[in-house]
Amino acid sequence: MRNYSTFGVSPDLSPDLSPDLSPAVRDVPGGVELSVFCQPKAARSALVGMHGGALKAKVKAPPVEGKANRALLELLSGALAVPPGRLTLVSGEQSRNKRIRVDGVDAATAIGAIMAALAPLSADR
Fold it and tell me: Which pTM value belongs to this model?
């Protein structure tokens, strides 16, 4: 049985496919910090929703020599429409649980951009 709790499906199965991103995005001086759960070696790279209070991202790259981390930063850079140089891996270099700092973006803008990146996935359901 599929667990729909991360997408806010109520017990009566009325789908609200908009995940609550607020636990994964927090304001810090000069930008935001994202909590991200990264799954490497996926079939395709995409932001897919929430996982345990963190934004879930799948990346095609393997977790070897920092390839998955670079792919994650590239994915987030595109989703947030910011240059890659504004993203910094704060922690989680060798873990699936990561913290990413994004300079020059506020939480509301980040959440809106991430929701827009998730919207094509919601339309497929």
Answer: 0.83
